[in-house]
Design brief:
Elements (H helix, E strand, L loop, with lengths): L2 H26 L7 H64 L3 E5 L2 E4 H9 L2 H4 L3 H9 L6 H22 L10 H11 L2 H7 L4 H7 L5
Antiparallel strand pairs: 1-2
């Protein structure tokens, strides 16, 4: 509870007290009284008016406190969900990194991995038709039972799973995702051109990582 809020509440309470005293003085004036009975009557008047008002404020304060606690509980639940989803996203990212290291051949004495094909797809190798290694990769990726085909199929599955969990991640109040989620989404989106060339990627997944394609 901020000091400013406490100050506002105190000022409101003092204002009510001053108003009650002002009304009493306006009706009965200012004079010294030595009769305890009159002081008792004044106390009854003072408390009879202010006590219900302060009781109402106390009740509203309890309701406000309960509302704050409920919001905190909901936020804790969202934070827990976000942490669990983030852990899954990290696991998927690690699995994708492993799959991208799948060996697919050699050229000029250098080993070629699926990761290199991601870069080729990113520059539009299929449309340009100037990469024999990429064209060969597209062919062997459709060969059922091959190591490359299995790796590509698993990459496609992992990207779709990544899409599902990223969509389930709680968004911020202003909309959008946290920077770390945006990082993983951007990192995964680099695979979309290659998967588009290979085919078989669900439309919803493609639209999530590459809205322009929709």
């Amino acid at each position: 509870m901020s000091p400013r809020f406490i100050l506002i509440v105190a000022c409101v309470a003092l204002s009510f007290m001053a108003a009650v005293v002002a009304v009493y003085l306006d009706m009965y004036g200012v004079s010294r009284v030595y009769d305890q009975a009159m002081w008792g009557a004044f106390g009854d008047y003072f408390g009879g008016i202010l006590n219900p008002i302060f009781a109402l404020f106390a009740f509203l304060g309890v309701l406000w406190s309960l509302d704050v606690q409920m919001k905190q509980v909901r936020q804790l639940a969202l934070d827990k969900k976000a942490d669990e989803i983030l852990q899954v996203v990290k696991d998927i990212d690690a699995r994708l990194s492993e799959l991208l290291q799948t060996h697919i051949g050699q050229t000029s004495g250098f080993d070629i991995h699926i990761l290199h094909m991601v870069a080729e797809a990113g520059r539009g190798a299929k449309q340009k038709g100037d990469s024999n290694s990429y064209n060969q990769f597209l062919q062997i990726s459709t060969d059922p039972g091959s190591l490359v085909e299995a790796a590509v199929r698993e990459i496609r599955h992992q990207v779709s799973t990544m899409c599902e969990f990223l969509q389930r991640y709680p968004q911020q109040q202003g909309g959008g995702y946290t920077p770390i989620i945006e990082y993983y989404a951007s990192k995964t989106s680099r695979l979309i051109p290659m998967l588009n060339d290979l085919g078989g990627l669900p439309d919803a997944t493609r639209a999530f990582f590459d809205p322009k394609s929709g």
